[in-house]
Amino acid sequence: MKRKDPPELSPRLARQRALRRLAHRDHSEAELRRALLRAGFAGPVVAATLERLRAEKYLDDQGFATRFATSRVAHHGLGRNRVRQALRARGVSRAIIETGVAEALRDVSEAEALEDAARRYWRNHGRDEPVQRIRKLWAFLLRRGFPAGLTRDRLAALWPRWREGLEDLAEPDDARESGEE
Asked: CATH for 8-59?
């Protein structure tokens, strides 16, 4: 049985591979560059492919950074610091990261994301003593990338209610809607 030679790594094939990756999920330019180089495409072919994808509006690091940041804050309970770190790991430039995170935080409240993450943690870690629980919660929220000042302020506002057990399982809006208070 004869072995087939690998297909020529042409610009057309590079574009197809890149579009296939972009169809699956958004990628930064650096992620696509690494993937195409790892697949064996030559540097000039990769550069030309990325330039064409930018011109065709398939590749946009600014849009990617904004969508990524919005998703991570709104749906994954991450703070701005963790989002910045994740975008840096994906090869996005600092200027684009700052603009993308700022745009995302105009649409999504980081304070609400912090409170949601804090409530979930509080409900799921009920075995610890309250003071130990709040210390662990503080560390958890900082690891999630929330700024220390915001974390301190929001926990100071939530702590009195949690300490007295008023908000252990229900959010404040849930109690008002059901007629309790």
From this structure: 1.10.10.10
